[in-house]
UniProtKB/TrEMBL annotation:
GO molecular function, one term: ATP hydrolysis activity
Domain ATPase dynein-related AAA: 73-206
Pfam families: AAA_5
Ranges of biased composition (kind: Polar residues): 1-13
InterPro entries, alphabetized: ATPase_dyneun-rel_AAA, CbbQ/NirQ/NorQ/GpvN, P-loop_NTPase
Region Disordered: start-end pairs: 1-45
Protein name: Unannotated protein
Organism of derivation: freshwater metagenome
Length: 502
């Protein structure tokens, strides 16, 4: 069976995502849709970084949360002593991830991978580096613009592809780096020796380029808190504001935003890139593609942190100003020109967050989102995206078979995209197309589950579509779930919700 698409994206690869939230029983289609209680606005909407003991970074909360939710590379730009390393360390600790800190100005390639030693099969093993990157989950490359050019080139795949020495780093999630600003820091007497311009191609691999606040840019209360507390983290954080919880919420919300408004945001990005070019700010096609996801993620982060009455145009502005590669150079863009291009592009594309998107954001269940979009007159493109997301978030392969059957019947007359029809047709035909098939069943749990299902069919009132589903799904798929009866019940609930009969 081919792998189904997954909308939970890391910057460079598709990663598995499992929706672990508790699923309630679905309502019948003639009843009102179940509504999640509106989440109250948090009393302190800037508690993301301050909960980790970081003072003065509140204005960057949505950008940093978006980056963590996307697992996107981040480049921090700031003077020495502005907590760049501290922020990375605190996030890695809060997320309980293996952290590697490398001073790029002193880094040798062997420090990353170890010493290469040929093995008996003609390959290489890497030995001897206790701090090697192989099992890292969070990597921080400090002073990357003091790194030798040849080593910078070797860091490309680490930042961009989570690879090193031609090997995948399967555990690596977050790649952050930091630089001191190249050139002058505001006056002719303040500069850093040995700091060079980063390669533009390397800068372009970072999704977010984040200038960090210095002493003069934080409020007096934050300065006092920083000096008195020593920036100690809050170890008693409420579960609702724990970083991992906020990241999960943001990752879920951004997919809804992408599905509901992705096409319109794409129109804005295309117009924006052209408007910026007229001001002398040139963006690569890669940057344009990343910017769409960055806007969705920042908007999702702002919703999670501040509540649902969030302006999408402001989210787009925040994402834009923190995603411009030239902000890491000695000639950063003029903010007024960037803002003017943003406003012009926004007016030309007339983006607004619609009522349907708001309803979809309030619905936590991926399958119910599909039903809700269909009930509210969502177009085929929106349905296709939500269907693809529903497959990606299914808790098991057996559940994917269940929704494939339901979607195949419910949307037979809709013009969905190939990306949506592919998993539907591939999985649903196993259940809906009659065939003679001989299955080999392994002795043990799988055989026991098959026998239980046969007995269940014989003793329970089932229609032909129920029996087809239970007989058509291989026993090993049911054996790999905690309770196959729960999957069958969800399948029946989906049929009821979408009005799928014989």
């Amino acid at each position: 069976m081919a792998a189904t698409p997954n909308l939970t994206l890391s910057p460079n690869r598709v990663t598995p995502a499992v929706d672990t939230r508790k699923r309630g029983r679905l309502q019948k289609p003639d009843g009102p849709p179940a509504r999640r209680p509106r989440r109250a606005k948090k009393k302190d909407p800037t508690a993301f970084t301050s909960e980790l003991g970081i003072q003065g970074w509140a204005g960057l909360d949505s950008v940093l949360l978006a980056a963590l939710a996307l697992e996107a590379p981040v480049l921090l730009v700031g003077a020495h002593g502005t907590a760049k390393t501290l922020v990375a360390e605190r996030f890695a600790t809060a997320l309980n991830q293996r952290f590697r800190h490398y001073n790029a100005s002193l880094l040798n390639y062997d420090d990353l991978v170890g010493i290469p030693v040929p093995d008996d099969n003609g390959g290489l093993n890497y030995l001897g580096a206790a701090g090697a990157v192989w099992d890292a989950e969070f990597v921080f490359l400090d002073e990357i613009n003091r790194c030798r050019p040849d080593l910078q080139n070797k860091l490309f795949p680490l930042v961009h592809e989570c690879r090193i020495a031609g090997e995948d780093l399967g555990e690596l999630r977050h790649r952050w780096a930091a630089i001191n600003p190249p050139g002058l820091l505001g006056d002719a007497d303040s500069h850093y020796l040995g700091v060079e311009e980063l390669d533009e191609a390397l800068i372009d691999r970072f999704w977010f380029i984040v200038p960090v606040p210095n002493w003069n840019e934080i409020g007096r209360d934050e300065r006092i808190a920083l000096v008195r507390s020593g920036a100690e983290p809050n170890t008693q954080s409420d579960a609702d504001v724990a970083p991992d919880h906020l990241i999960e919420q943001t990752a879920a919300a951004l997919e809804v935003i992408d599905a509901a408004s992705g096409d319109r945001i794409a129109d804005y990005v295309v117009t924006l890139v052209d408007e910026l070019a007229r001001s002398g700010v040139l963006l690569s096609p890669r940057r344009a593609r990343l910017l769409l996801r960055a806007i969705c993620a920042v908007h999702a982060a702002r919703i999670v942190l501040n509540g649902e009455d969030i302006d999408l145009v402001k989210s787009a502005e925040i994402a834009l100003v923190h995603a411009l590669p030239s902000r890491a150079t000695s000639t950063p863009p003029v903010y007024a020109q960037v803002l003017a291009a943003h406003r012009q592009a926004w007016e030309l594309t007339d983006l607004e967050q619609g009522a349907l998107q708001r309803e979809l954001l309030e619905e936590p269940d991926a399958v119910r989102r599909v039903w809700l979009a269909a009930q509210r007159g969502g177009d085929d493109q929106l349905l296709a995206r939500l269907i693809t997301a529903a497959f990606a978030k299914s808790p098991s392969t057996a559940d994917q078979y269940a929704i494939a059957v339901v979607f195949a019947r419910a949307f037979a007359d809709r013009d969905l995209t190939p990306a949506a029809w592919s998993p539907i047709c591939e999985l649903a035909q196993t259940v809906l197309v009659p065939r003679d098939e001989e299955q080999r069943v392994c002795q043990g749990t799988e055989l026991g589950v098959v026998r239980e299902i046969r007995a269940y069919i014989a003793q329970t009132e089932c229609d032909d579509l129920d029996r087809a589903f239970m007989n058509g799904v291989n026993g090993d798929h049911f054996a790999n779930v905690a309770d196959w009866r729960t999957v069958v019940q969800r399948y029946r609930d989906y049929r009821t919700l979408f009005g799928v009969g014989l």
